[in-house]
Design goal:
alpha/beta, Rossmann fold, 7-stranded parallel beta sheet, 6-stranded parallel beta sheet, transferase, Glycosyltransferase involved in cell wall biosynthesis, Glyco_trans_4-like_N
């Protein structure tokens, strides 16, 4: 089967990394992949061994000419179906292009941001199937009027083995410029408001006072970087809280974290949660969106109400004070990832939907 995948993201994390897992899995099963993505994006280079890559100009939701570019590509390559993996214009423009060429089109929805019912009615009319990466996103889509017969659920996956490794603590501590005996809390998320970094900063002062060796590291990049740095400096947290940016070595760092905190206000599922659980890291996260599917309260972490600074502080404090419970939750996370979030399960889930169109062997 020949599938044209369309991904508008420029960085190789989150949804784009899921696309790479899918491309590799499909290629290993004998299917032909084509990938349309922004010229020079990180995914293009990584996907080259398993897909025919077509770098295109992609300028976001207002890029009407994307319809023409994708229509030309579809007519020239003649795929059996088109799989749209992101918004950023690809969901609408890709849907129109596929409709104009008469090719079945699938859209994967990775976020739980609410959309107006009128937009849902118009946009998803373009798509033959809509895949939600969590039950939480599926509930949002149904509540906004998506016809149930169009909806399918295929959870995001994690390369469990890449993160289930021992911690080289001394080397990682030196790399992060923290003491070797530091108690490490990590936040792995884009630096944008809905990821909730500000709530953790509000919760931290009593915890930092109680644990002199506690260090907090924000991994990721985004428009809030300067604002967060200014707030850290203004509140006297410099030296205890740091921004480490986007890291290519996250698989080596995660096993050395004592706790991952994810105080998001909205979240489709949270790939960083899957990665941390694979690395045997206990998690404190918000009970929103698809997070409760990745973080089972009492099994691999603790869930708190979104935006509740007091509950966040208390749950983080409970786990900092109890190393044995942290170890038990970490082991629970590894077991959960191996059981329910494998790459094979994600690839087969997508293939099952492709086969609904009767063109896949």
């Amino acid at each position: 089967m020949k599938i044209l995948h369309v991904e508008g993201g420029r960085h190789l994390y989150g949804g784009a990394f899921q696309v790479l897992h899918l491309l590799r899995g499909l290629a290993a099963r004998g299917h032909e992949n084509l990938l349309a993505c922004p010229r020079g994006c990180a995914l293009a280079e990584a996907a080259a061994p398993v897909a025919g890559v077509h770098g295109l100009p992609m300028h976001g939701d207002a890029d009407l000419l994307m319809v023409l570019r994708l229509r030309r590509l579809i007519r020239a390559s003649r795929p059996d179906l088109v799989h749209l993996h992101s918004r950023i214009g690809a969901d609408v423009m890709g849907g129109i292009a596929a409709r104009l060429t008469g090719v079945p089109v699938i859209h994967t929805r990775r976020v739980d941001n609410p959309e107006p019912r009128w937009l849902v009615a118009l946009k998803y009319r373009l798509h033959d199937r809509v895949i939600a990466i969590s039950e939480g996103i599926g509930r949002v889509l149904l509540a906004e009027g998506l016809p149930a017969e169009k909806l399918r659920i295929v959870r995001s996956a994690v390369d469990y083995a890449a993160y289930a490794r021992p911690c080289a603590r001394a080397a990682i501590a030196a790399r992060l410029d923290v003491p070797a005996d530091a108690l490490l809390i990590g936040v792995v998320a884009q630096l944008i408001p809905r990821k909730g970094h500000a709530f953790l900063l509000d919760a931290l002062p009593p915890l930092l006072a109680a644990y002199p060796n506690l260090r907090v590291i924000f991994f990721g990049q985004g428009p809030l970087a300067d604002t967060l740095n200014q707030r850290i400096a203004a509140t006297g947290l410099s030296g205890r809280v740091q921004l480490a940016g986007f890291r290519e070595d996250l698989a080596e760092i995660l096993p050395c974290l004592d706790l991952l905190v994810h105080p998001a206000l909205m979240e489709g599922l949270g790939v960083s949660l899957l990665q941390a659980a694979s690395a045997s890291v206990p998690i404190v996260a918000s009970r929103v969106g698809g997070i409760p599917e990745a973080v089972r309260d009492g099994e691999n972490g603790l869930l708190v109400p979104p935006g509740d600074v007091t509950a966040l502080r208390e749950s983080v404090g409970v786990l900092l004070a109890d190393p044995e419970r942290r170890r038990a939750l970490g082991a629970g996370g590894q077991a959960l990832m191996a059981r329910e979030f494998s790459i094979d399960a994600m690839v087969e889930g997508n293939l099952g939907i492709y086969r609904e169109f009767g063109r896949s062997p």
